[in-house]
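Form 7-S
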Amino acid sequence: MQFKYRYIYLIFIVATGLWSAESYNLELVSNIESITESNSSSDFGVSDVWGYTDETGIEYAIIGYRYGTFIFDVSSDPSSPLLVADILGPSNGDYYYHRDYKTYNDHLYIVNEMSGADEGMQVIDLSPLPELPPIKHPTYTGISQSHNLWIDEDLGYAFIEKQYQENVHIVSLENPDFPYQISSLSYLDGENCHDVFTENDIAYISEGYSYEFGIYDISNILSPVKLASIPSFGYAHNAWLNESGTHLVTGEETVGMTVKIWDIQDLDNINLVGEYLGENSLAHNVHVKGDFIYISHYTTGIKIVDIFNPSDPIEVAAFDTFQDDDNNGFYGCWGAYPFTSNNYIYASDMQYGLFVFEFNNIKAGWVYGEVIDQGLPVAGLEIRSTLNGRTFITDLSGEYSFGFPEGEQEFELYLNEDLISTQNIIIYPHQNTEFNIFLGLNGDLNGDGIQNILDIILLSSQILLNEYQSSYDINNDQELDILDIIILVNIILDI
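Output:
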């Protein structure tokens, strides 16, 4: 298989030690910190988070802890989610937790790395909610300890990760109360498997220390066939397909390793097209909904990245759930669940519990232009956002280009660390817009330090010639017309 790699350059510059995680474009609805606890091995309190909607439309957050699983009613009062169930599970061991959760046909399935009673995959009937508590069925004991679980809702199969020779345990949910094994992926196919994602009879296996993401045809579930593989430059942790099925997003849970976006439309020619990494240089899980990647990014919290343009992923929202530090340790935000019907997002922070956020689908846009001072380009100018601290630098020609969350955004302009101006720039969703920045005297077209009739003559000539020059575009609307002349006249008259 042939892979094409190209370097993905980040266009923003971060001053080491000066840039910390910021919270923006995510509204905190509630936070339940009381469910965390200290543990003798690590200060871990909760683990992964998932969601469930009952037949009445009530939405629930499902979150794990050392002794079991909490279920919260989020819909009735999102500002104060109501604990409706505490499902105990195996609890032998001090470090490990109830790890992963998936739902299928009003049932909740739970895997863990504990030992003791209920070791295996717990089976919980959620259909009695909201009037009655969930029903706990006998635990599926075809596996013992497991770290991750995936359910293909179209096929009705559960894929259970096992760190044993039979790495992926495939279970039928034909009878949701009583799962039974029908197939598996062996040690050689899915070596050191950490996680599974499936869509349209294709399985994407994150193969851990095998350092690759395997792609398998599972149309014959009894005999999966490996189609291709994608290399991992760190631990192959998890993967998620975009909704159009054209790109696979992969995470490697290794310090310094980026979240990567792969064009997989041709499995014989897979291309790396985009990369993203937050401030702490350590991402955990990735999920994709619509044009957004939702990342649980350990000590920097939850990150939302717009991949409308897969080759240029842009962070559009963030919330630092763990504000103690931004170190690259394995603590902070474990999970982020975006698949609710009301724009809520559930996040789990190991130290600070359950978070509920509202996200208004803020999109990315792109802007480019020149920075000009009295007709001359300004190189090395810092364009620094007051929203999230991102800094962009003009090149030797005074030009800049970057992606940013939509809306009217404020930027501070620095030259040699001196604040020289503040500029508002309008970012249009999923559009590329030219915006030139004029320092000094706006409208001084001939660079003589004076705005006068000579500048009007120059502008008029340019309009008559029907030639566009960005430095003459007084109102930055990408057109040279009478409006520019009117603005220039008003500037001269000091109106």
